[in-house]
């Protein structure tokens, strides 16, 4: 409670939460007297309570006005007009104006009379609630009393006889003021004489007529001031409406309801002030008690929804213990994968890439690069010059790979790739001389040498036949031979993650880690050869392609996998494979979100329990949409464009689901990065490591929340490492060319 009004005053309450005070009192009394629990769900302003009591009508009331012992107004505002509101646009929120405080800064000084000042002086909050003290029934009667006392003291009424009763606050009732004019003239006169007699005053007929006029003047001013306040709010709502319609205003309070002339004055004044506004006035019959009960009922329903939402999302929430266990598990699998004779087979391939050197800036020349890693295929011409001459310059073309090609035969897939290369040569008038080529091939390969790699399995929806178990460089060379139009010199087979690392290492020599979080998820890093038990050499270093997307394929992720992950896995092209990747990468995050939303709809938490047809469409939540939902404050329109006619409340739930799924993905990815940088630190026997991670992929690039969550979690899980994240510029293409350039440089040297 901010402050007491209406001359209420209990010490030690202002600044306190009245719900907590009430709940504490209830709990203490229930323990002693009754054996049941009562929980306070909502605190409701009486004006809002009146408004909510009419919420069951076909159209909700936009405005509620109370003119009672106090006065106030609530109205329905569009949420996109409320500064700082987290609600969705097209939603609404009732605003409690507390208009009784209007005038506290002097806005009503010209309207304030000497009698208003005397009433204010007798109040417990002098100088406050100026508008309320000029309009509410509590103060209307006090103003009349003060005027009568003043005129009597000046011998202008009652023959100058001022009785002590007239000086006592509260002795005049609202009924006295109203009934002086409510009844026919003769009856009104008698009523006036009766209440004056009760106050100990001997009043002539002329005195009674004057008193009637005083009462009428005071409540007329109250009605007109209330009309002016209401007119301001009606004009505001009318201005916002694209298609103005008749507004509904709920009126409550004894002053308005008990005296027809008061309502007539208010409504007539309103027509004069805002003739463009059409208003239907209705009276509050049930009062704020029913409204408070309705608010409590809605809150109880929403709380059940929140509890249901929390229950569904709970498996996605990872504690620091969960993350540390995940980091340690990945680290253990890294060691197993590098070992020549591991105690158990590792689910991490830890594949040698035969990339042993990072760029040092001395690379020069022209190089070709191919980039195959998803639904698009790129051909690039990369000119490598000195930094003074502009560094790396790239010409590239993007070609689509239709699904029928990705799931055809190997010959058809590689023929399509070569046809794209021929088109590139033709478009850019390239010479027939064979240029060194780096081939970015973003699928798990057992690399035999820098230019030879055996495809272990397809991922990301590819399933071309006659490729698994074959050398992909030879498949490319065979397709070139079948084409007989161009010639290439494939010098390096490159995983996109390695390309990303090399691209960033060209700019930052501390870069020893590559990370991709896009259609798939993978990481690589520079490992000491002495730790690579699968190779015979102990000298120098080599980049290791972790293929970390396969972590968990042995069942070690069971603790982290939700029912929604299981559904996505079963419906994928490679069930029970790439379990880690399916919890992180953009190819699967949208599907996880979709299945969570379907579950929430089945629990009546979303879409009023209706299962929307659009939600049954696989792929309705692409990576970009998840990023857009994370990046926008309001997502209502985004979802509507997908054919999901959601309410503003639904939109908030959808955003929370996306946020939670994205957060888990970022934290799990961070556990892998933390395991890698900690291993590099231990390899170098350093207490503190400065290291850069070159990172690429649509999930990281398009979703700032994912990127920040990833960085923050790495800092938490690898406190002895100062990790910098460097966004790769065309890593998979530029990096492939740089690997070819480094290979040529080291071959020459």
TrEMBL record:
Residues 3-55, 310-506 form the Hexokinase N-terminal domain. One of its GO terms (biological process) is intracellular glucose homeostasis. Its EC number is 2.7.1.1. It catalyses: D-glucose + ATP = D-glucose 6-phosphate + ADP + H(+); a D-hexose + ATP = a D-hexose 6-phosphate + ADP + H(+). It holds the Pfam family Hexokinase_2. InterPro entries: ATPase_NBD, Hexokinase, Hexokinase_BS, Hexokinase_C, Hexokinase_N. The gene is HK3. It is a peripheral membrane protein. It comes from Pseudonaja textilis. One of its GO terms (cellular component) is mitochondrial membrane. The keyword DNA-binding does not apply. The keyword Acyltransferase does not apply. Residues 63-298, 513-742 form the Hexokinase C-terminal domain. This is hexokinase. Belongs to the hexokinase family.
